[in-house]
């Protein structure tokens, strides 16, 4: 007896709990930040239960998952200076870095064909959830009113989302969901045989691109452009150069034609954008946080400043030049420097090696997963992705599926 999913994926009845788990994880874009933790807990529980029904027919992936656990274990260096409750709470937030490799190690004894089907279920569910999220975003913006944001611009879009009691998230992370959904569409596009299906996928991509540009999260857009260029390089042999040139022309044309109030990219072409110390210049703030993080790392090269002290150290440094928004505590805004500050040079080297290992294996196994890792690599340059629940759980899920998912 098989379980038949509506989009024609037959799954063995022995995989029932895994099917529910992957369906549930695909709904993450429609959850609140608080509900994310609940969904992740249920996902983990269901996969543990599923492990009792798995038949040991596949060789378990030991090396890859052992290496991945080092991302969490190296952070334990923060206790060299003594046990601290704040450090414990920070480690608790990052425990997915340890749990996901263990859970997927248990899943690795399931038939690879079954896991591929489970992953496809997740792709369809995640794409559908993200499309619904776009409608939710438009609804929130349409009904939002705040005298601080009288103009229809990117600030209004951000505020409408941030002030939502349920869907409140940083727009960069909403853009992250949409970008991953676009990468799913590109994966489907590469496998689609019917022209009508390709047309539908192109329309979905355009539909997802609109709110991404309206949010104007620069690093999210740059990450998507980077992935698009790499996708063209690995998918096309003869026409890659004219397609890349056309894509770049389309990108820059869109940037320059969009009204300035809906387009924060034009700020990057301002001569003094990196020096303008004003309240709403996020580019200046990001530059200061990264500069401060690098300077602090140079002074604490071997062991960092400790997980519990990273944000305080960076914020104290930033506040010497940027005095606005006093209630905000700034983090390194760079995941590479974040690990370096948490536990020193060893943590940074382990982080880079883990990412390299994921890139190498995903390039062999599955180009969609390869592109998602590339996207996160770009995202890491200006965001502490792994220290926000939304970024952490999605990264851990996708990264730990790499050895289990192989393209035909």
Tell me, what's the shape?
A: globular
Helix content, binned percent? 55-70%
What fraction of residues sit in β-strands? under 5%
Number of helices: 16
Task: List unreliable stretches of 5+ residues.
Answer: 1-7
For the termini, the CA-CA separation is 25 Å
Strand order across the largest sheet: 1-2
Number of domains: 1
Domain O-antigen ligase-related: 204-352
InterPro entries: O-antigen_ligase-rel_domated, WaaL-like
Main location: membrane
Protein name: O-antigen ligase family protein
Explain what you see.
- This protein has helices at residues 16-25, 33-51, 62-73, 85-93, 96-107, 112-142, 154-162, 171-191, 195-215, 218-235, 240-257, 282-299, 310-318, 335-365, 367-379, 389-400, and strands spanning 2-5, 9-12.
- It is mainly α and 408 residues long.
- It has one domain.
- The chain has a two-stranded antiparallel sheet with strand order 1-2.
- Strand 1 and strand 2 form a beta hairpin.
- Helix 8 (171-191) runs antiparallel to helix 9 and helix 10 runs antiparallel to helix 15 (367-379).
Quick summary of this structure?
The chain is mostly helical and 408 residues long.
Q: What secondary-structure arrangement, pairings included, does this model have?
A:
Blueprint: E1 2-5, E2 9-12, H1 16-25, H2 33-51, H3 62-73, H4 85-93, H5 96-107, H6 112-142, H7 154-162, H8 171-191, H9 195-215, H10 218-235, H11 240-257, H12 282-299, H13 310-318, H14 335-365, H15 367-379, H16 389-400
Antiparallel strand pairs: 1-2
Helix pairs in contact: 1-2, 1-6, 2-5, 3-5, 3-14, 5-16, 6-8, 6-9, 8-9, 8-10, 8-15, 10-11, 10-15, 12-13, 12-14, 14-15
